[in-house]
Design brief:
Shape of chain A: elongated
Strand content of chain A: 25-35%
Helix content of chain A: 25-40%
Distance between the termini of chain B: 30 Å
CATH superfamily of the largest domain in chain A: P-loop containing nucleotide triphosphate hydrolases
Shape of chain B: elongated
CATH topology of the largest domain in chain A: Rossmann fold
Number of strands of chain B: 4
CATH class of the largest domain in chain A: Alpha Beta
Oligomer: heterodimer
Radius of gyration of chain A: 24 Å
Chain lengths: ~300, ~425
Amino acid sequence: MSEPILKIEHVSKTYTGHKALDDVSLEIPQGSIYGLLGPNGAGKTTLIRVINHMTFPDCGKVFFEGHEISDKDIFQIGYMPEERGLYKKMKVGEQAVFFARLRGMSHYDATRRLKQWFERLELDEWWDKKVEDLSKGMAQKVQFITTVVHEPKLLIFDEPFSGFDPINANTLKQEILGLRDRGATVIFSTHNMESVEEICDDITLINKSHNVLSGPVQEIRHRAGAGSYLVTYGCDRQLFLDSIKDKVTLIGEAEGVLGGFSQQKIHIPETCNLKDVISVLNDNCDLRAFQEIVPSMNDIFIRAVNGTL
Amino acid sequence: MSKIGLIISREFTERTRKKSFIITTILTPLLMIALMAAPSLMMVLGKTDAKTVAVIDNSPEQKIGKSLESGSTVTFQLLDPSVTAGQARTRYGNADSTYGILVLGSDVVDNPANIQFILNDAPSMSVEENIQSQLQNAIRQERLSRYDSPELDRILADASFKVGGLQTVKNNGNEDDSAAVEATSSSASFILGLVLGMMLYFILIVYGQQVLQSVIDEKQTRVLDVMVTSCTPFELMMGKILGIAAVAAVQILIWGVLIGCASAFIMPALFPADAVASIQDADVMNIVSKFTDTGFILSLFIELLLFIVGGFLFYAAMYAAIGSAVDTPQDAAQFNTIIMMPIVLAIIVMMNIMNDPNSGLVFWCSMIPFTSPIVMMARIPFGIPAWQIIVSVVVLYLSFLAMTWLAARIFRVGVYMHGKKPTWKELGSWIRMK
């Protein structure tokens, strides 16, 4: 694997009497979409502010493409803060051009590319309106465009989907995926777990200022679900229970009955062979379906935060 | 364009495009002209009908009462001495027709306290002043006439004179004084210095506050959080300061032109030439003659520019640092007071300049950058040595650099901080932060 674009090593940050980050380390692979998860107040935004040099860690280091991050590297980042900031009295188009030029684009390029973006996100008729006339969702779209128009290497979105309707949230997701495909690395903090499953390649879960869970999303989900299966069978329930009771533990009660079949979640301990269980079920219980249960990120999030993972 | 350039141009265009900018730019000179024209307007508008005062003179021959002359403020109506004050009270008690009744005692020439003024209406200062001065003259005349000396009037006229303005001349070190430069009298210099000093005061405060407000606005709207990945805090701070400086320059220039035009075309109409010519005051003539001297105006203008620019940059850096450290204008108030203190001190010291423009206090205040722009500008019309001005300017610009460096350090940390107002100790630790 190539060098991670961003590496955070043992970062701690204490505000007056409150520890916001405690020895957090993580690596963000080049070209990935990285989810920074955690309940409110866990320290996600503080971590982002440390990366952006808006605040300085008490100890620990941040590396950008292998070297310690400098003020210059910050300009390679596109950052959309959670609390959106635009000049209210300024015209939308002018403002977008101003930010794009501030990030190094020429007036001509900025105008051309922004017009394309505005058209794509159906904002073109708002180009000459003032920001204060925009709805919240539209202002956020403008904010999104100004963050990405100069195509920075690393994009950081703090709660990008908050305040969007499902249609716009979906548009935004597609755009974020597109940016990744064109080579950008994307970090976003969120507690919207659905979006994490859909688009994140890797995640880190921060809880109470600690990094409690890190890694690729698929791996985490399989690991968290290891040994849990959903069985659909056609035989009598007692027979089913008798056949497997010494091998597995049941999770919950028997569930939904589909066309005369029963369903039961089970957990197979590591000591027990999966094949044996399947064959027993197949032989005795009119086995109709047997599938691995991959927990949703939502479940994992709640279990991790409650410490039951 | 550089990043600072972009920020300056945004700040400039956004501000000058605002309606409020256009309105204040046009209205302020109008207001100033109105203020200048106000006294002459007041005289025209403040004129009321003459008040009628009934006079009962009990002195022999009614000499005093007869000598009272009716004018534009008071019309005197001498009553028959047989009318008593009591009768007059009822007969002339109507406020609409008679303003008051003046009763002069029979011994009024020897005892001027024996004068009573019975009012039907609210007291009026101009009427009282008019009556007092007329009585003063009449009684004086009456007393003098007792000496029966025809020479007396002439002697008195000869003995009353007044020493006017001194002819102040600068010592050029030569015996021959024909080439000596005429020096400005102290009061003329003081008036000029006062105007210049107040101008500096106004500019420092008004535009300095704009810098403060601008930084706070940016913090409140969270635009700053977006700026972090676009430019350094220093670029942002300098861009804001210089952008507002550009707005100030344009605004002052427009005012200069408008006021110049106004004084060329409107003032002569308000103050006719013969009225100006009739001004005998040496001080005023002195200032007027000064302003026809192009060399003097030019050097004064350059000095003014140097101190305006230096003073503004120095104070703007402080205002920017404060704006970065707080979240709301309310929080800024406490720090604002601290900034205002040297400015107010400078104004107090400025008032002292007339006594001695070279006293220790005044000298040092015109060197220390916190007060120097205002105090030095007020001193310059007195004709102080060039080296002092140069030192003061150099100190001011060096301090501006130091203050900017200091402010940038506070700004760098403060601008991304939200929440409670920092203490002085915290501000100190921000400066030391690596």
